[in-house]
Each structure stands twice: as structure tokens, then as C-alpha cells.
Amino acid sequence: MTDIIEGKIISTTLGEFANQKIVYGYIGIELADKTHVKVKVDAYTKHETLTPGDEVVVEVHNLPNTGIIVARRIQLKSNMHTPSDEVPATA
Predict the structure, then answer these.
(1) Which among 15, 63, 73, 85 could bridge 68 via Cys, Cβ 3.0 to 4.6 Å?
(2) Is the pTM of this model over 0.85?
(3) Distances (CA, A) of 12 to 28, 51, 88
């Protein structure tokens, strides 16, 4: 099941496969209610940012039988509602 979480990146523990530029590891997200969530980043994670302090919207799913939350898409919150996303009104 896929869920969406929003918050601020507060920590990163990331590595990179040298030749392939594949990022893997974990990021910490602080939610609006000040709870912290540990999110796994892997080769299948598409991301705009992994920088601490950035406000993000993260598409996640839980790995079955593990309790591990995996990010599938990490987007800057500021890019979520750009004017190009708005549908023009029709007369």
C-alpha cells in the first residue's frame, strides 16, 4: 500500500555506488506533529532532494513483514503546487 507523508528532512545517512550514482540509505523526516519517521532510500527512489532542512512530500510504502518504510518518490513541497499544475478556468 502506498501512502503520502509530508514533513522536513532532519537527517540523512546515505551512501552512493561509485560508478552508477545510485543513492541508498535512510533519511529522517519530521512530520507536522513533530513525530519522526525513518525512511529508506534505494535504487528505485526518485528524488528531487535529499538535503536536510528541505520541506518534502514523500510517496512511501511499507515492506511487508518488516516495518521498514521505503520512499518511492521524494518531491520538494514547494514544487507540488506550481502554476503550471493549475487547471485554467473555462468560460
Answers:
(1) 63
(2) no
(3) 6, 8, 39
